[in-house]
Amino acid sequence: MSNAAAEKIILGKTLAIDADGNLVNMADWNEEIAGELAKEEGIAELNGQHWQVINFMRKVYSETGDSSSIRKLTKESGVDTKTLYALFPKGPAKKAARIAGLPKPKGCI
Fold first, then answer.
1. What secondary structure, in 3-state letters, does 7-58 show?
2. Does 2 have pLDDT greater than 90?
3. How many helices (H) and strands (E) does the chain have?
4. Predicted local distance difference test score (pLDDT) of residue 20
5. Alpha carbon distance 77, 89 (integer Å)
6. Digit-coded pLDDT (tens) for 20-36
7. Catalytic status, residue 11
8. CA dist., res. 13 & res. 88, Å (int)
9. What SS3 class is residue 6?
10. Catalytic residue among 28, 80, 108, 109, which?
11. 3-class DSSP state for residue 76?
């Protein structure tokens, strides 16, 4: 897969995105951008549990350079599997990573 970035305008800012639709530059991310990305994923509003997962993922990425797998999320984020799927339907790790401004986790299709 090529690393060529596309562009997307969110809240008036032109942002580089990768082939999976994730932000290329983590520095472009903020909570307002996260809210817009969530809306694109069909999540109308981010609540405290969404932020718990998003902040956990960003912390893990900053420490390891990798996005969290679903297994790591359910074991270490404090949010169980059933809740993760309710918060981020149809692919919680992939959607949460995208909303968190991170690359798609390696194990995600």
1. EEEECCEEEEECCCCCECCHHHCCHHHHHHHHHHCCCCCCCHHHHHHHHHHH
2. no
3. 5, 2
4. 85
5. 17
6. 889 999 899 999 999 99
7. no
8. 25
9. strand
10. 108
11. helix
